[in-house]
Amino acid sequence: MAQQETIVILDYGSQYTQLIARRVREQRVYAEILPWNAPEAQVMARRPVGLILSGGPNSVYDAGAPTLPDYVTRSDVPVLGICYGMHLLAHALGGKVVPGTAREYGPAEVDILETDTPLFTGLAAQQAVWMSHGDRVETLPPDFRVLARSSGGILAAIGDATGRVYGVQFHPEVRHTPNGAAMLRQFLYAVCGCHGTWTTEMFIEAAVARVRAQVGDGQVVCGLSGGVDSAVVAALLHKAIGDQLTCIFVDTGLMRRDEAAQVKATFQETLGVRLVMVDASDRFLNALAGVTDPEQKRRIIGEQFIRVFEAEARRLGDVTFLAQGTIYPDVIESAGVRAASASAHKIKSHHNVGGLPEDMHLALVEPLRDLFKDEVRQVGLELGLPEKLVWRHPFPGPGLAVRILGEITRERVATLQAADAIFLEELWNAGLYRETAQAFAVLLPVRSVGVMGDGRTYAHVIALRAVTTEDFMTADWARLPYDLLGRVANRIVNEIPAVNRVVYDVSSKPPATIEWE
Ligand code: XMP
User: How many helices (H) and strands (E) does the chain have?
Assistant: First the structure.
């Protein structure tokens, strides 16, 4: 197996740091994010073939502003400083950074002065880029050259005489810099000498080996939720350890329509995974009877889930490992690598179901810890999971409970499941499911008057919610075509007698949240 090449990204608090990592990995090079002040030994233990310094909100002259660790310029590892990262390099190496005017904030045009420099080889001499910092480099450090200049005269790219250190004032990682991916690619391949070893196949091969080494001949239990991450964990573990893996699917009665049957068909029948299906819907619905407060719903479901899951896991006997679908963004945020602000806005209690009480003392197996969501999906496809499962929108742990406003009854769950299934089916048929980050139906706690045939009706209202978002922290309502919305609304009122009115939610987040509860 080829040696894994790693790029270390030192995080200076940019909102784009994760995007840099994703863009590097899209070029088939593994990238890991570490805090800017990570100890040198921790960074060098990765044997980085290149370092990228992210942007950040500070000015190099701010009191207490993050600084450049001296190993960055001492070592002979290639460096690319982006925005604040460029300022740091210039500042540390003897150049001068000054506050700019707001003039070049946002889109800008730059002239590449050295089109044969490795960073820009193959690109036209004029490039559109995206700037987002007030400060700029005014005086070059000794032995540096200007590689690109903006039409407003700002130093847009600089490089040192050794060809090892580069700085760019703009953000190559954002889509608003159309050739940014090509520039990153040049840095990775022409400057750092990467070969492109980060592929789905390589990941699977290495992950299988790691899981086998960790688990030995132990038994592993894995909770399937119907979602992508747990599905990919199960498929990967099944490949690695076969029948040493047992999956448990707890049907809370609050899943999307046909979800339990689909999980059974995919995992038991197609993949041959050992699967325990538990129909706990009576238990969940009884515990939720009469409850209308959203946080109380979440609490009850979380508690019930743990009890049911634990009882089933104990029944399996000598299980020593619990597999979980933790992915890289969770790791980064919980390790506090990223500034706390990224996770500071979680207002709802988002406990993901799937955890177990600590007294079971199970060791965790988390084979997706290094992957971004899009990489998890690629692994899922490579492992033969069905496309509809792999592209599934996120679904909240408490399931339809937070989409049924007011009291939850079996009948109301069935109404919502039917409406939701129609919406999703039409979205797939229109080819818009994958472009939408999340789409679902919500059952409102009101009735409205309608007319059907000769009769007056007094029936339920369904709200349709569809959003586009990159990170689920902010979201916009999806501009779905009117005729699609019309078709969905028609089908819902015609096929579901309990519903006589459909509305479309046109709120963005903030101020609304994506879910209604
Ligand atoms: P909101 O509604 O806060 O949702 O804008 C952001 C994302 O989180 C999901 N969500 C949950 N996920 N348990 C979960 O596992 C929860 O209680 C929960 N509430 C919201 C929501 O579906 C969206 O993707």
Answer: 15, 20
Mean pLDDT in residue range 310-331: 94
Check if 192 is active-site.
Answer: no
Nearest atom in ligand 1 to the alpha carbon of residue 515 is: 2
Element at 467 (helix H, strand E): strand 455-468
Atom of ligand 1 nearest to the CA of 395: 22
CATH 3.40.50.880 for domain 6-191, yes or no, is: yes
Of 32, 173, 426, 517, the active-site residue reads 173
Q: Is 38 helix (H, G, I), strand (E, B) or coil?
A: coil
Identified catalytic residue from 32, 83, 194, 247: 83
Q: Which two tokens stand for residue 255?
A: 């899943």
What local confidence, expressed as pLDDT, does residue 339 receive? Answer: 43
Mutate to test the pocket of ligand 1, among 400, 515, 517 (most ligand atoms within 8 A of CB): 515
Helical H segments across 135-280, by residue range = 180-186, 200-215, 228-241, 259-263
| Neighbouring C-beta atoms of residue 338, cutoff 10 Å | 20
231 CA to middle of ligand 1, Å? Answer: 19
Bond into 329 cis (ω within 30): no
Do the domains spanning 200-390 and 403-504 agree at the CATH topology level? Answer: no
Q: What are phi and psi of 420, to 5 degrees?
A: -60, -45
Q: Which atom of ligand 1 is nearest to the CA of 512?
A: 5
pTM: 0.89
Centre a 10 Å sphere on the Cβ of residue 69 and count the other Cβ atoms it contains: 20
Residue 332: the pLDDT is: 86
Assigned CATH class of 403-504: alpha beta
- CA pair distance 354, 482, nearest whole angstrom: 38
Domain parsing of the chain, residue ranges = 6-191, 200-390, 403-504
Please tell me the distance from the alpha carbon of residue 466 to that of residue 71, in angstroms, as a whole number. Answer: 48
Computed over every residue of the chain, the mean pLDDT equals 93
> Distance between CA 36 and CA 67 in Å, rounded?
8
Decide if 351 is catalytic.
no
Residue 401 C-alpha to ligand 1 middle, in angstroms? 12
* CB contact at 8 A, 81 and 117: no
Which CATH code for domain 200-390? 3.40.50.620
Structure tokens at 33: 């994010």
